[in-house]
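Exercise 3.2. Students should predict the tertiary structure of the chain below and write it as structure tokens, then compare their answer with the key that follows.

Predict this chain's 3D structure.
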Amino acid sequence: MDNIKQKIANLSVEKRALLELKLKNKKNNNSSTPKYQSIPQRSKGDLVPLSFAQQRLWFLQQLEPDNSFYNEHGAIQLTGSLDVAALEQSLNEIVQRHE
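Answer key:
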């Protein structure tokens, strides 16, 4: 940081004025335009186009509807008592997030 301060202190009057002007313009430009634009949320009724990967999976499923090659399986073993209400709430939250 001291190195930057030293470099600024060593600038000529003209160069320092130019630097201050550029910094002021940059600050004004940044404050007037938002950094990030939010993605508008789609309404529930809007159709969303499928990606190429989704189109491929849909096509393969149409060819062989009973094929489960692309299903992911998993199991966990729990020890101790199970809070069924908490598990149900967690699973419902995951499903809600992915609908």
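Discussion points: The chain is about 55% helix and 0% strand. Residues 11 and 17 are 9 Å apart (CA to CA).
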